Amino acid sequence: MKPWHNIISEEEQRAYRAAGFGRPTGIGKRPALLIIDVQYRTTGTTPMPFFEAIKEFPTSCGEVAWKAVGNIKLLADEFRKRGWPVLYPHVAPKVQNEGGRLADKVPAIMNIAANGYHFVKDIEPHPGDVLLPKKHPSAFFATALASHLIDLQADTLIVTGCSTSGCVRSSVVDAFSLNFKVLVPEDAVYDRSHVSHAVNLFDMSEKYADVAPTQEVLETLRKI
Fold first, then answer.
1. Which one of 38, 51, 68, 98 has the fewest beta carbons within 10 angstroms of its own beta carbon?
2. Who's near 112: CB < 8 A, 6+ residues apart?
3. Running DSSP on this structure, what letter comes out for residue 189?
4. CA distance linking residue 157 with residue 184, whole number of Å
């Protein structure tokens, strides 16, 4: 069962099918893994219920983040075993005079403790991985991501991390716009809202990416 089946009505899903949306695009021959914003600021330093987690970092997504982390690790391990590239678009520390509209919209995001920007240890970068600090939602906006992917001759992106409705979605749309094939492992991305998570996965699956469980994505990768 897909994450959105109890949220998007059968009639609405049927409407998308009738209009021709949701066709799979498949995978290429040179995949790259994006691990977006998997920092303690989005997971908390330990698994905690949401309203406990946000006492530590207001940007934390709580326990759902840690469930995704385990699946992200499976994907990262497979990529490293195969010698495929792993890239880390991540939130750079915020300073007040750089806040812009983000600071207006979410003031709490400007006051995250320094350790909140550290990578989660279970899936922290290895030597040779590409680190891409960013200031905005999309991993492509004002970063060198596209340049790295061209250099790596990547044709497919596996997009993981946080949040499904924000940085993941905006990165997926930009990747699609740049003609990459895109796969989103539905249980390797996370969000503070279950509904927003599910609806955005549905929308991405209909328009911009193939969406499947991590194990299915791994099976697909192992056929390359």
1. 51
2. 41, 57, 58, 59, 93, 94
3. E
4. 8
Query: Total structural domains in the chain?
Result: 1
21 is a domain residue: no
DSSP secondary-structure letter at 29? S
Structural contact between residues 208 and 176, judged by C-beta atoms closer than 8 angstroms: yes
Residue 138 lies in a domain: yes
Amino acid at 98: E
Residue among 65, 162, 62, 59 at smallest CA distance from 108: 59
**Distance (Å, rounded) from C-alpha 103 to C-alpha 110?**
6
Q: How confident is the model over 68-110, as pLDDT tens digits?
A: 999 999 999 999 999 999 999 999 887 666 667 766 787 777 7
Residue 22 is assigned to a structural domain of this protein: no
Under 8 Å between Cβ of 165 and 133: no
Q: Where are the alpha helices (DSSP H) in the chain?
A: 10-19, 40-43, 50-56, 63-82, 100-105, 145-152, 169-177, 194-207, 214-221
CATH number for the domain including 164?
3.40.50.850
Q: State the pLDDT at residue 106.
A: 73
- Separation in Å, CA 40 to CA 35, 59, 89, 118: 13, 9, 14, 6
Question: What tokens appear for 215 in the block?
Answer: 């194990």
Q: Which residues of the chain have pLDDT under 70?
A: 95-99, 102-103
Distance between CA atoms of 47 and 44, rounded to whole angstroms?
A: 7
Category of 92 on φ-ψ map: left (φ > 0), alpha (ψ -120 to 50) or beta: beta
Query: Which structural domain, as residue segments, surrounds residue 163?
Result: 29-221
- Structure tokens that stand for 54 in this block: 């946000």
pTM above 0.85, yes or no: yes
